[in-house]
Specification:
The protein has 86 residues and is mainly alpha-helical. It has 3 helices and no strands.
Length: 86
């Protein structure tokens, strides 16, 4: 019978360590995930819109900066446009 090597016996996993989210975020350099500032209570109607690529990019960046969804940004823009148009 062949002699068993220690590596053939397997290994033990380290014990599970629970790290608070804020400490983990500090370790990884990431900010903790927060909810959006604006949540709508009602569901909306789905529309498909086409924007020029640069405008779409600017919209996404602005929404990320303000922690809002693109739908919220477009909704606010359309509300403003409709108020001015009337």
């Amino acid at each position: 019978m062949a002699k068993r090597r220690p590596s053939a016996e397997g290994f033990q996993l380290p014990k599970k360590t629970i790290v608070p989210e804020a400490e983990a975020a500090r370790f990884t350099g990431e900010q903790p995930v927060r909810e959006s500032k604006l949540r709508r209570a009602e569901l909306g109607e789905r529309l498909t819109i086409y924007l020029p690529p640069e405008l779409a990019k600017d919209l996404r960046l602005r929404c990320v900066t303000e922690r809002r969804s693109v739908s919220d940004g477009v909704t606010e823009a359309v509300h403003t446009w409709l108020r001015v148009a009337m």
